Amino acid sequence: MATFVFFYFAGVIVLTSLLVVALRKPIYSALSLLIMFFHVAGLYVTLRAEFLAAVQIIVYAGAILVLYLFVVMLLNVKREERYHPQFPIGALLGLTILTEVLLLAYHRSGVDEPSPLSHTARTVPNGQAVATNVAPAAGNTETIGEVLYSTYLFPFEVASLILLVAMIGAIILAKRDLFEQREG
Amino acid sequence: MVPLSYYVILSAIVFITGVVGVLIRRNIIIILLSIELMLNATNINFVAFSSYFQNVAGQVFVFFALTVAAAEVAVGLAIIIALYRSKTTINVDEFQLLKW
Question: How far apart are CA A177 and CA B63, in angstroms?
């Protein structure tokens, strides 16, 4: 059952990501990306990362994709008649890398595949926990919050700085007459 | 339980689709969408490994990748709007001022 669910999500993800690249109207590409985001969120749920599934839908599907659709509507771009002239080279490169990765994965699969750690395997013989941030139930929102605000507190602050810089940068880049007033 | 290598292969396929999309498309919006594909492929990898090693650090890193993706989209779309204003097109072939 789990395998079937995985193959459903994986199939839809691969199909829609191919459609994002192949479709010629930007609006259709953005909508197939929306379907892909929902299925990636489903995949997160099967991996017991419920918090990330919710964040994926709220941030990616709710905010980022709406921003894309907004710009597509705003610019009113026409459909692209043909691909870039370097299309054969790009496709060849993609096929080459894909074959290489698949061969490597096929060659290596099952050799030293990390088995999912069971609950008992996470304690060393003398009873101590192996790592400090090993969660009793991965994907639990509470656990993520605790790790995020203790171990990863500094990266968290840096992330807020990135968001601030992006906000200021977007306003400065998109504002029409920010620098023209000074000259005239 | 689905083997971990399946997730890695899925992530590789999505990532390479994104790379090919960046190479073959001429619409700059689609190029940004392909970058989103690549970011999602890495996130799938992070969550799969995090689940298999029972360690939430991977999920925390997906959180940071999400932050960077949001910042990238905000700045990227602002750049697209500025480009459209200067040339009334978003075809990447038209922007070759820095091309040698």
Answer: 35
